[in-house]
């Protein structure tokens, strides 16, 4: 029996069919892959027609069934004994031990000593319930999640400019008709390959403009007359955006009618742009002044083309983590939004601005109360009306809801410290690998009084735990996800879970009962979703009009906001922005001081990113044989001109180090990186972990860490010939 569901990984949430191996009729050219299911039946995945993937799956997607019957699958809770060894125990004992640890932390250090770290990979139901569980059962404000590492700056900038943050405020299919696309800091050709089909229209028009310090697989799509590749020095995206906006204003390319009718703040913005003429931008970014001008003109040309009816679509500006993962990420994303507003893109039916969410439920994960400063419905936790509404749904008094907690990096810095978190619950995150300054995080985890990790394999974080709780995988239970378009979709149970693994919803229900929490905690996903609908009603991310039955099939797409009685909102801002006065806000921004000094003699700039074969910390994809054999280890990309004086040849083992840590990786010499830059993927653990080198300095608005620039030294460790 085949089951229609969606991929376990990224925010594209490609539609797939899971069926017993050999039973899928695979159309010629369509991807499919097999793996053993947890029930012992081999499953294979094939792509299904759906607007985001149109039948395509990437290598990660079609090998995903192999995860279901991984030999490394956990099937019993594990408790660390006095000898330091993790041993299987029963569920009753595991839950009792977790509840005892919470009570001990409360008694010794107060309720704030308990913390929760969630994930943008959790279903909407789990993300919602985890926020409620933290605040009512664990009685702590200290919950945050790994979305703080990937979307928080774009979210803060969207809220600042539009009054609302939804990754793409338009259906992805709108992009197909684009005349011009400016894509900054996103390597979709590796991270979400089916997305590339949506760029074909712009490539055909010669209008794909990619901004990336590396000639990534996506930047290479601009070759052959398909567009432009701008290759700025890492960390200078804001200066580049200011320069493009300067040209738009000074060459009369701004949409003055749109600016007057729909925005505030034009004059201060123009004054702030005066200082960013293209030659100055060239000196800061390394991007030739003429390319800065050319980009501005092409963006304006796309809009003109659509208005004149010469092309079905106009201009789109899209940002990704390369722009956002900086200490000035919110301001850099704001610079991109300012540019889009000057051109009149947002709220248009033929053009737009958006940001590409990375994690599978990166969008839904930030709407339902996992963030330290938010309640369900994307409500501010400090808003008295929001607290009253959510408290009423939960059947408690507003005073029983804690206030704001700590954003992720601050929460991790507090681990084991006086006044900090002493007992931590981790759900769906491998923070020992994915966090900035990962060595310090590992030390923090080891200093805790008690660490509980819920996962389905022994990830590097679970390996540090006092108690590991084995949980279900994506195809073993029902739930909903919200993709990068803000579209809510159903994930379906396709196989029986292994004996001994449990849903996080069940775990929360059992622990809440042991801790005598107020309110109810269901382990039924649909019941939890019904409660989520009520809690979100009237909020910015309103799901109250969406039901499980409606999501049964793909032919009635559900885009939030979707108030009860409405038809949802595929395209946002067509009539008004979400600020009370309906107008978008232009906010002047300027580059600040880098978190650490770059360009010192003998040092290079490390930037990090992803590979086609791996997803996030690699905890899942490193356990899929086909993926791990294709990319078993990280490669340090460096320019041949950089490698030569260092005595590093292709394939040599190199050491990359700074004051935070030391990493070993084999060298890959390539002109795809700038001579002042080296690149490492961040999917690998231990001495191969790129995040041993990254900084825990954060954006003051969003709490986003500076992942994308770190000063490092590189030296040869072993020559390839003598390995
Ligand atoms: Fe899965 Fe993303 Fe690949 Fe689609 S692009 S198959 S959602 S990992």
Automatic annotation (TrEMBL):
Positions with biased composition (Gly residues): 355-364
Pfam hit, one: Molybdop_Fe4S4
Protein name: Molybdopterin oxidoreductase family protein
Start and end residues of each Molybdopterin oxidoreductase domain: 73-513
Biological process, per Gene Ontology: respiratory electron transport chain
Annotated keywords: 4Fe-4S, Iron, Iron-sulfur, Metal-binding
Annotated Molybdopterin dinucleotide-binding domain residues: 604-710
Top-level taxon of origin: Bacteria
Record domain 4Fe-4S Mo/W bis-MGD-type: where: 3-68
SUPFAM superfamilies hit by this protein: ADC-like (SSF50692), Formate dehydrogenase/DMSO reductase, domains 1-3 (SSF53706)
An annotated GO cellular component: membrane
GO MF term list: 4 iron, 4 sulfur cluster binding; metal ion binding; molybdopterin cofactor binding; NADH dehydrogenase activity
Keyword Iron-sulfur: yes
Region (Disordered): 352-378
Natural source organism: Arthrobacter mobilis
């Amino acid at each position: 029996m085949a089951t229609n569901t969606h991929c376990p990984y990224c925010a594209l949430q490609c539609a797939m069919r899971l069926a017993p191996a050999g039973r899928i009729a695979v159309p010629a050219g369509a991807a499919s892959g097999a793996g053993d299911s947890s029930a012992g039946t081999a499953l294979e995945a094939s792509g299904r027609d759906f607007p985001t993937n149109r039948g395509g799956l990437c290598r990660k997607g079609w090998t995903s069934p192999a995860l279901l019957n991984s030999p490394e699958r956990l099937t019993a809770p594990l408790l660390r004994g006095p000898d330091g060894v993790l041993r299987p125990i029963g569920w009753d004992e595991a839950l009792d031990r977790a509840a005892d640890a919470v009570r001990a932390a409360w008694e010794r250090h107060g309720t704030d000593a308990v913390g929760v770290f969630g994930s943008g990979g959790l279903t909407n139901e789990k993300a919602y319930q985890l926020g409620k569980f933290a605040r009512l059962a664990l009685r702590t404000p200290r919950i945050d999640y790994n979305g703080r590492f990937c979307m928080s700056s774009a979210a803060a900038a969207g809220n600042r400019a539009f009054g609302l943050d939804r990754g793409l405020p338009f259906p992805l299919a709108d992009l197909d008709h684009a005349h011009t696309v400016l894509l900054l800091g996103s390597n979709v050709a590796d991270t979400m390959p089916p997305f590339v089909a949506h760029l074909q229209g712009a490539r055909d028009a010669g209008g794909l403009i990619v901004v990336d310090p590396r000639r990534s697989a996506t930047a290479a799509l601009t070759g052959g007359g398909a567009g432009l590749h701008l290759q700025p020095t890492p960390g200078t995206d804001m200066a580049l955006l200011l320069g493009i906006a300067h040209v738009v204003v000074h060459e009369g390319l701004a949409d003055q009618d749109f600016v007057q009718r729909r925005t505030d703040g034009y004059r201060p913005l123009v004054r702030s742009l005066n200082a960013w003429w293209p030659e100055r931008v060239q000196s800061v970014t390394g991007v030739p002044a003429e390319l800065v001008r050319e980009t501005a003109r092409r963006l304006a040309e796309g809009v003109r083309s659509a208005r004149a009816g010469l092309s079905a679509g106009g201009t789109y500006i899209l940002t990704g983590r390369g722009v956002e993962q900086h200490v000035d990420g919110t301001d850099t994303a704001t610079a991109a939004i300012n540019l889009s507003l000057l051109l009149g893109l947002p709220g248009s039916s033929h053009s737009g601005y958006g940001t590409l969410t990375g994690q599978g439920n990166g969008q839904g994960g930030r709407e339902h109360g996992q963030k330290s400063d938010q309640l369900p419905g994307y409500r501010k936790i400090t808003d008295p009306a929001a607290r009253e509404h959510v408290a009423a749904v939960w059947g408690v008094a507003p005073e029983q809801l804690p206030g704001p907690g700590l954003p992720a990096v601050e929460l991790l810095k507090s681990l084991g410290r006086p006044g900090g978190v002493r007992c931590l619950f981790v759900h769906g995150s491998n923070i020992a690998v994915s966090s900035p300054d990962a060595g310090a995080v590992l030390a923090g985890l080891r200093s805790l009084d008690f660490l509980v990790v819920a996962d389905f394999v022994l990830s590097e974080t679970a390996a540090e735990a006092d108690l590991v709780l084995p949980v279900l995988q994506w195809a073993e239970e029902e739930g909903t996800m919200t993709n990068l378009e803000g579209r809510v979709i159903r994930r379906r149970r396709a196989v029986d879970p292994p004996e001994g693994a449990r849903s996080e919803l069940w775990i929360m229900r059992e622990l809440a009962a042991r801790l005598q929490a107020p309110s109810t905690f269901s382990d039924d996903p649909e019941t939890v979703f019904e409660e989520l609908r009520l809690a979100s009603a009237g909020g910015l991310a309103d799901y109250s009009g969406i039901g499980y039955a409606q999501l049964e099939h793909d032919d009635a797409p559900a885009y939030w906001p979707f108030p009860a009685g409405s038809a949802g909102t595929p395209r946002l801002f067509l009539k008004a922005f979400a600020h009370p006065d309906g107008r978008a806000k232009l906010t002047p921004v300027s580059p600040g001081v880098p978190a650490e000094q770059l360009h010192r003699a003998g040092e290079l700039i490390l930037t990090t990113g992803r590979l086609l074969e791996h997803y996030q910390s690699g905890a899942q994809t490193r356990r899929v044989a086909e993926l791990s054999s294709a990319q078993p280890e990280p490669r340090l990309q460096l320019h041949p001109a950089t490698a030569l004086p260092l005595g590093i040849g292709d394939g040599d083992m190199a050491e990359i180090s700074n004051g935070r840590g030391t990493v070993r990786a084999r060298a890959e010499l390539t002109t795809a990186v700038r001579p002042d830059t080296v690149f490492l993927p961040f999917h690998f653990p231990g001495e191969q972990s790129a995040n041993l080198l990254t900084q825990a300095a954060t954006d003051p608005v969003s709490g986003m860490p500076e992942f994308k620039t770190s000063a490092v030294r590189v030296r040869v460790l072993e020559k390839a010939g003598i390995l």
